[in-house]
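Help needed: design a sequence for this.
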């Protein structure tokens, strides 16, 4: 018995994934598919309709520098189950995946104040938690970075201790991230 079914073709953007952990003292940067970024899948309609995503993975275990590698794309349904490609035709057997590996550095955060408290009150000190953060970036940017200066906290008219939350990402130099 032969069962016939309509042929279907559909295009999918290939997502990149990194498996493993880079070496100690390094952090994973951008992971992306560089070529081809779109994959055309053809085959029986019931199988093609089940495809929810196409993912290409790169192993970054122990890496200390950026790398590019070819990976076989895997097809997944909406529940994350892998779909076999035996009855499907893919426009490419492999895709190129790039993984950026960045250096890390522990830097201090400098806090300061502006303005004057009300009456006889004075600023006794400024502290923050955490006082250090781990940042990642390229070596040439990290080598120049010694600390992160946060915008001064306004204490003008204060009559008691001030506690505030600050989004530190606003003060990171270009090319540096948490």
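Sure. Designed sequence:
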């Amino acid at each position: 018995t032969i069962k016939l079914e309509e042929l279907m073709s559909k295009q999918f953007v290939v997502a990149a994934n990194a498996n493993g952990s880079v070496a100690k003292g390094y952090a994973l940067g951008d992971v992306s598919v560089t070529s081809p970024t779109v994959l055309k899948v053809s085959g029986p309609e019931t199988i093609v309709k089940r495809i929810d995503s196409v993912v290409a993975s790169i192993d970054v275990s122990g890496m200390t520098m950026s790398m590019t590698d070819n990976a076989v794309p895997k097809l997944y349904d909406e529940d994350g189950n892998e779909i076999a490609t035996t009855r499907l035709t893919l426009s490419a057997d492999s895709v190129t995946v790039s993984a950026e590996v960045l250096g890390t550095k522990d830097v201090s955060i400098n806090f300061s104040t502006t303005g004057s408290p009300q009456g006889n009150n004075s600023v006794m000190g400024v502290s923050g938690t955490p006082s250090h953060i781990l940042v990642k970036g390229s070596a040439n940017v990290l080598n120049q970075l010694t600390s992160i200066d946060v915008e001064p906290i306004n204490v003008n008219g204060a009559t008691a201790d001030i506690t505030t939350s600050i989004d530190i990402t606003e003060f990171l130099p270009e090319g540096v991230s948490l």
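Residues 7 and 132 are 58 Å apart (CA to CA).
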